[in-house]
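Key result, reporting period 2: structure in, sequence out.
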């Protein structure tokens, strides 16, 4: 279940998160795609696979996998909780902002 489809330059990008928090295993540090906290090897994170589908106006073509994104454990937990509630996550906002938006709309 993708998080979000983002239109751009004749393509649609789908984000497909792993369904569990895992250990960040890369040697290089990477920042959380939500809150920008740096992740180091051994930190807990949520890995997000990204795919780009080319669109020619009539149909989707081949998909291309893009570089993975990562969320820190805190943002990843919020993301998984919102997905469980079937909330339409806006990846351009932080997970904290998405959670606030969810709670405001839920009331």
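The corresponding designed sequence is given below.
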């Amino acid at each position: 279940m993708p998080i979000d489809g983002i239109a751009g330059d004749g393509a649609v990008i789908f984000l497909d998160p792993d369904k569990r928090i895992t250990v960040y295993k890369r040697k290089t540090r990477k920042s959380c795609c939500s809150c920008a906290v740096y992740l180091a090897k051994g930190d807990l994170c949520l890995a997000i696979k990204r795919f780009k589908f080319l669109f020619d106006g009539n149909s989707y073509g081949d998909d291309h996998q893009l570089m993975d994104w990562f969320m820190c454990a805190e943002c990843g937990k919020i993301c998984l909780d919102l997905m469980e509630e079937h909330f339409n996550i806006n990846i351009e906002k932080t997970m904290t902002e998405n959670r606030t938006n969810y709670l405001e709309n839920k009331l």
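The first helix runs from residue 73 to 84. The chain has one domain: 5-106. This case is discussed further under Risks and Mitigation.
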